[in-house]
Queue: 4 jobs
Job 1
Amino acid sequence: MDFNDWGALVAICVAGAISPGPSLIVIISISSKFGRKAGFLSAAGHGLAVFIYAITTAVSISFLSDVTNSFFFFVKLAGALLLLWMGASMMISASNANNDAKNPKIPKNLVFAFRNGFLIGILNPKIAAFFASLFSQFVEPTQGFSISLIMAGIAGLIDMTAYCLAALISNTLLVKYLFLNYAHIRDYVFGSLLIILALSVIQDSF
């Protein structure tokens, strides 16, 4: 890969990271409800998921090309179920949001934030499609593992940085005020969007 190829790779990774989707909804929701640290942890989990996708694509491009259809089918279904669960959870929590908005309870153990960030990344069919269609175009079957590792590291770092910025923005005073004082609206809207996305994925799968 020459300099132009590396520049193009960075550009598509940035475009993929900042494009709206279920990952952004989930991470903003976690950050606004549980604080900046939880948002950073969810961003780190999402970045790890992206790194795994990237390194898998880079080192196994020929194998993945043979099993793409079945791979995407199961990723789509698993991702749709996760979106349904998260969307339903937000809708249920919306009924209690008015009572908890003024004094949100932040758990001491924030492992769930990292876990949810990782799961929404690894089971997001949009991310799977991105690496199979766009990222794979920069992979050469004969390239060394070090190049694959650098490519995956770039993708994961860009993704994590983008979602850390989203977590920061969602914790600014104005945004946090709006999210906390209209938490029930936030959860209804975000939950509805996730459910709609899940149903759309299921419909496309069949």
Note: The radius of gyration is 18 Å.
Job 2
Amino acid sequence: MDPEHATVNGRTRSIRPQWSHRELADELRTRIRSGVLRPGQRMPTQAKLADEFGMERGAVRQALRILQSERLLTNMSKGSPATVAPDLGLALTGPGAPPQPTMVGLGPRISEAFAQPHVEIEALCLTAVSLQLAVGEPLRQIHAGRLKPATVDVRVLLPSSDIDLAFPARVDAPADSRLQRRWLAQRNAQGQVLKHNLLALRATHGIDVHITFRALPFTPPVKLYLLNGSEALFAYYTLTQREAEIGHEQVEMYDAEGTQSMLFAFEQGAGLRDTTFVEQSQLWFNALWETISSELTLTPTS
């Protein structure tokens, strides 16, 4: 017999170490995100979950309450199983949701921001790649006639080309100028695509669009997106060591994959902590914009 299973009253049951309520919440969250548990579907009963995972029902209830607080479950009551939330898009990516990789979490929030008549987006980041990708869906919605904001104002803070970046950097030779040139080319190209795609809305749809870039005198260790003055999305750039080809040479470098950085969402009005975080993030961004940042044009020498 499998050493992790035993027969109890004629049934095979797991005898793995006791699951904690947080481990069960993680497992059920994974099933919901992967589609094993579908939107609107009834969850297994607490008794079935307790039996499957070898847990007490009290611990199962704790796990379900965690998912309810994350808006992944609805209709929780004593008499019937909970239901997987029908609107998982908002539950998985909206304010108050668990952190998501930037590629997953940013797009839906940008689309929600574009549903307003006056769109204001502010970003502080290493490059504009995540923002450029995230605006793709609302642009498609605008071209399809499903969205039409009156104004779009975008402000972006990026590192200056005049500084030595803290990362990306070679492990054995931090001052390799080839890494700096490669990052600068990416920064400029992504920023130019973002600017071109947004400004094109003036001619195609008569939308009043303004987009401005300014340069920071430091390498940002975090990324921040502020949406319509009511949401703040925050992520850490987590450095890893990896190999990359630079000038036909394989080099070890420290870098951060910004599109995979875990994005935390905060919403004004969702409690004192969230409201304060949004307000302080806006103050911080404005202070950087108005004091130590400098003019930036997206050319190879700026």
Note: The longest strand covers residues 151-159.
Job 3
Amino acid sequence: MANTRDIKRRISSVESIGQITKAMEMVAAAKLRRAQASVIASRPYTFLQTQLVSRLQKAGLETSNQLLEPGNGPGAYIVIAGQRGLSGAYNANILRFAQQVVGSGQVIAVGRKAKDFFAKKGQQIIGEYRLKYEAPTYADAVNILKPLIGYFRDGIIGSLHLVYTEFISVLNHRPAVVQLLPITGAVDTADSESYIYEPSPEAVLERLLPRYLTALVFQGLLEAKASEYSAQRTAMKSATDNASEMIEQLTLSYNRARQTAITQEILEVVNGAQALEG
């Protein structure tokens, strides 16, 4: 059995780790609240844009838009993962899902974990992007998507998909994939009203489609970041709970070792006294 000094040293070490994980849990919880609010606030805007694109597609436009036509090049996939670890199985889950979806396609890696994963797999990476701030911005989505729209127009890629983690609740998030290009019918608006578009439906659609795609990418970034913070919070809470359980076990071992040492000392005193009486 370990002596009391070693056990006490281990208790002190585990307590320090528990304090760190508790602080990280609180930080992740604060970030999660802000990220969750951003996700909830952005969803209606994205959905209304989707409805508008659907209405325009159903308006019988007598023009063709390249972003609506299937391409001839290989498929490309924007894969959003974390920039760092300490988030439980978040990165492993999304990257395992992405590997199955991507197949032999080309990858645009968002986050260091995605880039490192696909580089080790020998996957073709045609783009790499790292978020500069903890909260994604609309400019991030613009910078990611702008060159990819050019690749699609030039025939370098034939389709574009977004692979991200959908935020459902604080304790629930799941990998998801969305087709960005070519743009297909998005949602059934179930709307019989007629609308007047100025200057024309064709002009509105031409201006709207890039903004619509950017909104989808931005929504994916927000969903992924909220999911990552949720996973970090859960992982740090689990680590803190494990530290507390380990401290209880070590404290019990410490008390047993201390009692054993005291009992041994008492026996030595008794034996010494008996020897003197004899």
Note: Residues 90 and 228 are 6 Å apart (CA to CA).
Job 4
Amino acid sequence: MNESIPLSQKLYLLGINPEKGGIISASYTAMDYVLMGSLFLELYQCKNIRFENKRIVIKESRSEIVLHQFLLDKMSKSTKPLKISRWINKFYYSLKHIRREIQQGLVEKRVIRMQPKHFLFFKWEKPILVNKQVVYKLVAEIEKQVFNGSANEDEIILLSFLKPAGLLKRIFPERDKRKLAKQKMNILMVDNQVSIAVADAISAAQAVAASAAIT
């Protein structure tokens, strides 16, 4: 499954509207938190960290991946292991930089381009898919994993992010198929406590952010 594309980039790709570009409305609010959580899983997969009681413990503080090293440098300054949700919130003010790095990685792979946009005094960049086949293949592989079952931890970890990222309707537009997919994913993930812990942490971090916005 597109092994050259890391988890965070796959999730960002899936969130892009294939026709209009930009992040789909269902994923817009959640995407930054999901990207943060997916990067923790990348660090776990690279054996830089481990999870203990939903807390992150650093095993190896050096990485050849620039974005991973950025996270590890900041996390290494903590005097004690913190909960995943705490780290997600602590990186809140770095999300613009993190998102830009993920976008740049996909631009370099020639999968997306960033289209400059402006309105009055506001300027931003909109992600546009330039290689839709990569996304179509990714969606097809996800469907196969869900309905045929998967014992691969990396694949199950990706599946665990689909609901928090608001991507289920994007991948399974038919209601009955989406309902069946949810049931099958619940079975697949029942024993994968790592992905469940991160998904829970994403929800907790979103709840904290929403509460702060209201107050």
Note: The domain at 7-210 is CATH 1.10.3630.10 (yeast vps74-n-term truncation variant fold).
